[in-house]
Amino acid sequence: MSTKPSIPLHRQVPDERGFFGKFGGSFIPPELQAQMDEINAAYQRVSRSADYIAELRRIRRDYQGRPTPVSYCGRLSDKIGGARIYLKREDLNHSGAHKLNHCMGEALLAKYLGKKKLIAETGAGQHGVALATAGAYFGIPVEIHMGEVDIAKEHPNVVRMRILGATVVPVSFGARTLKEAVDSAFQSYLKDPVNSIYCIGSVVGPHPFPLMVREFQRVVGIEAREQFVGMTGGLPDSVVACVGGGSNAMGIFSGFLDDPVELHGVEPLGRGAAPGDHAASLSHGSEGVMHGFNSIMLKDGKGEPAAVYSVASGLDYPSVGPEHAYLNSIGRTVVGTATDEEAIRAFFQLSRLEGIIPALESAHAVAYAVKLARQRPARSILVNLSGRGDKDIDFVMEKYARYAELEY
Questions:
Q1: Cβ-count burial of 29 within 10 angstroms (0-12 exposed, 13-18 middle, 19+ buried)?
Q2: Which helix (H) or strand (E) holds 167?
């Protein structure tokens, strides 16, 4: 009696219309939909070609420095007296974060399509730096939209983008953070969609972006699974990653979706659970459409995207990638939170005990992993350290220098 092979979960979604269950899709004007259809058709065609695959693999190996390692945090694990904590070191990926994984893929696609400009938004600046890096590599002009609040907060990354040749467009309306940066970038893209391509920075937006970014980021999970089994002889008990839009989390989760492994997505609880004090969409939001996709979002009294806040600019977003909403709805992922204070403590704790300065976004995942380790001794926890903290050091020491005096 023959049985059909089971289909991996990541291959079951999205459907041909870009839906992950009821989440995702494409809710955009007809003129923009035509461009999305073109991008989707090109991606489906080009990403399967032997030349494209070979070139992207060469770039990852010879330029990005992949595979990035998995590191065991021995001193941190001993200090907290709980589970064994490991890090997938995306901070060692060229440009300092996981973002280059999809930026090189998107820029390579733009090269194949003959596009003349790359346009994107950025919050913490890591996506902006990564796309500026990709633009310099391929010789394609780059335009990055960034909220004025984040420009001041993430000054080192703004300097890096400009050194790499990108044009940084300050966004001065609304809350002047990530949501408005997305709005501004889309407006710019619509002025000339024929000659430009919008390179979204996470697993959000209208179809095919959640699919494309996930597929480019899956390399993280594929590597991590093989490396962890090679190091320990088995799978981790838990995989932990921070979630704003959710690109780094989908990247590493994709490698473990079909395994008996807990997947923990950590949202920013900021100053607390009151509206406007956090950006924990899955924890406190409800179903809604923004930026062309249906997911779980934080809303104000009028049903519009609510004001959000996080110490980490890359997590400061009022919605979440539709695949995260779907995985949570079917019980495949566990949603956790970390506050600003917990993230800042984890920032210094990892720096002092392991000599690794994490990005504030990644520090949320580290903070949650430390709490999880204390609750579950003798277990193994793999954290996706999605980026390094060079961009955050000035801001942290200006605002949180008192934490540097504490014992860790």
A1: exposed
A2: strand 167-171
Query: What's the pLDDT tens digit per position in 256-314?
Result: 999 999 999 999 999 999 999 999 999 999 999 999 999 999 999 999 999 999 999 99
Q: Which two tokens stand for residue 133?
A: 């890096």
Tell me the C-alpha distance between 75 and 89, whole Å: 17
Peptide bond into 14 cis (omega under 30): yes
Global pTM reads 0.95
DSSP state of 302: T
Selecting from 3.40.50.1100, 3.30.470.20, 3.30.310.10, 3.40.190.10, what CATH number does the domain 65-97+217-405 have? 3.40.50.1100
> How far is C-alpha 352 from the chain's CA centre?
25
CA distance 287 to 267: 17
For the segment 87-99, what is each residue's pLDDT rounded down to a tens digit?
999 999 999 999 9
- Entry field: residues in the chain: 408
Q: Which residues are catalytic?
A: 73, 98
Kind plus residue range of the DSSP H or E element containing 333: strand 333-339
